[in-house]
Amino acid sequence: MPITWVPPFRFGIPGARMKSYLAYVARRSGQLVLVIFIGINLAYVISHASPIDPVEQSISAVTSYGNTAPDAIEQMRSSLRELYGLGGSPIEQYLAFWRRILSADFGPSLSAFPTPVATLIGRALPWTAGLLTASTVIAWGLGNLLGGLAGYYQNNRGLKAMGVIAMGLHPMPYYILALLLLIVFGFLWPVLPITGGAAMNLPQAWTLEFMMSVLQHAILPALSLILVGVGGWFLGMRSLVSNVVTEDYVAYAELAGVRPWRILSFYVMRNALVPQVTGLAMSLGGIFNGAVITEKVFGYPGVGSLLVDAVYAGDYALVLGVTTISILGVSIGVFVIDLLYPLLDPRVKVS
Amino acid sequence: MAAILRDLLRHNAEFRIGVLLVGSVLLLSVLASFSPFPPENVYVVPPDLPPSSTYWFGTTSRGQDVFWQLTFAIRNTLLFGCIVAIISRLLALVIGLLSGYSGGWIDRALMSVNDTFIVMPLLPILVLFYFVMRDRMSWLMLALIMAGLGWAYDARLIRSVAMSLKTREFTQTSLFSGMSTRQILVQEHLPYVMPIVFSSAMNNMVWSIGLEVTLAVLGFTDINRPSIGGMIYWANQHTAMVAGVWWWIAFPTIAVVMTFVGLFLLAISTNQYIDPRSRLGRVGDVT
Fold first, then answer.
1. Cβ-proximal residues to B180 (8 Å cutoff; 6+ apart), any chain
2. What is the pLDDT along chain B (287 residues), one digit of tens a residue?
3. Which residue is closest to A50 within chain B, CA to CA?
4. ipTM score of the complex?
5. Contact B121/A54, CB-based, under 8 Å?
6. CA A333, A169, A155 angle in degrees (round to 5)?
7. Alpha carbon of A50: minimum distance to chain B alpha carbons (Å)
């Protein structure tokens, strides 16, 4: 993608552009609705294409623990059918499915009966959101900063070595990296907590002690997300910057005696950041996938652990709830990044 | 083609390392044909033996030889990646070329769907899929599903090339000489996007194998079919790290890391070859 010259020092949106910004917001909102619509439909099709009846599955899970009276089973069957929205014609089922999602009512969880699924997800969501936001911001910021430096100072040995490390880290699946960290900090050098979201014996309150414990427990899960992420942003930024520095305006600025740090930050990095913001929006789904598995490895109490445990427990309502909430959450995250995009790139116009 | 490979081998260190890594992994997968034990059998060798001259990579708690098990696992895992890559390449090609060449509402509609698949969190959807399919989910079915979900990013890449090809003079010439859209796309534009198809195929394999390993270590695939993730799953089931059977986890992990880094290096080095800007950058280095 050719990167054309953008005047420096224009972070805000001038008033005249407000109209085109609103049009842009409207277009992105349309895309947001489409993502959610397709995602939820995908979830619906998958959950209803099952060759196994989820109701029968739940019943056999319950009855396998001991004898249950036939009357009770029949009663349970009918109430579960109602719960899963499996009664009525396909169209009624489809509408009922949407109604549940829009009202965030997935019924009670089977594995943590009778706690509603929404409550369980609500409890887990802040953990995932916190972990994901912190590690994504750190990985993106650090990767872009170092990558930018590496692209600008191409002969620096330390930055070259960092490039080699980034190449080794970036293609690794999150699970493998999390496993390596677990082995290193769990078996070889046990200095960090390797499981849970905070120390068990602390009350969950806004005390300093509890917050410190939360931070300490977040180090390993966050680190495995950051290490994979930094590699990708580093490599992307380095190649973008090494292309931008060959542009004429950079040569001109250098000849005109603009200070190097200013060239780097306002002339080079700022332009190269634009595609990286798009990249962030595009890779959010993948980062979320990483968070799911990382949480499971470190027993972090977020939606990822909730999802995996729900599968092990055969909790249909919880699996469906977490899946749909993930689709909603990620697409809203992408939407927010998209809204910030024009602040960086003033060229966004109504096309 | 041979000349390109020779040049890459001679001048590109990343390509050399990539070939070395992927080559050794491939070699390992070929050895599966010479395995003395069928991969599904358990307790064919004494369990929990550390690596030795008889059992190069040790044996598992299930009485399997880690080395031979690994050969099958690598073969199946690579096969999985290849199938996903091939099918999703076909989808990406058709959608990317059509979208880029047609423009207008076809382009807008296809790209809206495309962007949707790019941002979708696939792991929860695949987990939901496993949850409703359970034991009926075979690896081939998983491969088809992932191919159906994994074409989007590369379709966008191919589209951007197709858009620039459309404005070239030879496209106009073919159009005026009476070629149909299908003919123009297949005969004229396809050769230009093939290099991207190759480099993106390797990135796609990194992606699909990564997801497959993730699903397998959770036990969300056909765990009786040997695969890298499956080996780690069984090792975790037998708490291999706590029991000190480290070789059960170490060797599959090394193999999968070699696969990932190797494929990724191949992808970026071919990408550098394709991208004329970075080629110019290399010319600058020489002088």
1. none
2. 677 778 777 778 888 999 999 999 999 999 888 888 887 777 778 887 788 887 788 888 888 888 988 999 999 999 999 999 999 999 999 999 999 888 889 998 998 888 888 888 889 999 988 888 877 788 898 999 999 988 988 898 889 888 888 888 888 888 888 888 888 888 888 888 888 888 889 889 999 999 999 999 998 988 888 899 989 998 888 888 778 888 888 899 999 999 999 999 988 888 777 765 555 444 444 33
3. B132
4. 0.83
5. no
6. 105
7. 5
DSSP B43-79: SSS-TTPPS-SSSTT-B-TTS-BHHHHHHHHHHHHHH
Instruction: Find out whether A289 and B123 touch, Cβ atoms under 8 Å.
Output: yes
**Is residue A278 within 8 Å of A341, Cβ to Cβ?**
yes
Interface touch A330/B14, C-beta < 8 Å: no
CB-CB contact of A142 with A258 (8 Å) = no
pTM of the entire structure? 0.85
How far is residue B163 from each of residues B171, B182, B195, measured CA to CA in Å? 11, 15, 16
d(CA B283, CA B287): 7
Structural domains of chain B in order of their starting residue, each with its CATH number: 80-244 (1.10.3720.10)
Best A240, A295, A311 member to test B by mutation, with max B CBs in 10 Å, is: A311
User: Assign residue A184 a region: left if phi > 0, alpha if psi is -120 to 50, beta otherwise?
Assistant: alpha
Residue with tokens 């991969």: B39
**Residue B97 tokens, joined:** 């070329």
> B120, A35: Cβ pair inside 8 Å?
yes
The residues, any chain, with a CB within 8 Å of residue A189's CB and separated by 6 or more, are none
Structural contact between residues B257 and A176, judged by C-beta atoms closer than 8 angstroms: yes
Kindly list the residues from chain A whose CB atom is less than 8 angstroms away from the CB atom of residue B210.
Answer: 173-175
10 Å Cβ neighbour count for B156?
21
Q: Are residues B143 and B129 in contact, defined by beta-carbon separation less than 8 angstroms?
A: no
Residue A248 structure tokens: 């004429």
Q: How many CA atoms lie within 13 A of A56 on its CB side?
A: 5
